Amino acid sequence: MKAWISSTLVAVVVLGTVPVAQAKPISRIIAEMGLTPADFEVVNAASDAMLSGAMPRVGEESTWVNDETGSKGTIRVRDVRDNCVHLQHFIQPEGADQTREVRTRRCRDANGNWILTP
Questions:
Q1: 10 Å Cβ neighbour count for 59?
Q2: CA 20 – CA 96 distance, rounded (Å)
Q3: I need a labelling partner for 105 at 20 to 30 A (CA). Which of 24, 25, 69, 75 fits?
């Protein structure tokens, strides 16, 4: 019993000293990827369009282009589980040489709306 209490206290002290990772706001993630707010609106509209009909299927894809900025990308349904869709975004901001990947998840709420969730 004493050994269990000691190991528990050590675990609490060690875990208490580890800094807690803070989630980045979506605006910062967008900016770090080189996207503009207008690019994000286009990505969001493309995602909404993919989810507007029946439940999407794994492998479905949609492409998008922001004619104003030149940024472009592809959205792929990576997984469908329970009431959630896992999306894989391949994004190429204007001026970038490489495509960047971001994964998001959207889940249906009680009203049938698709909500961006962690």
A1: 8
A2: 32
A3: 69
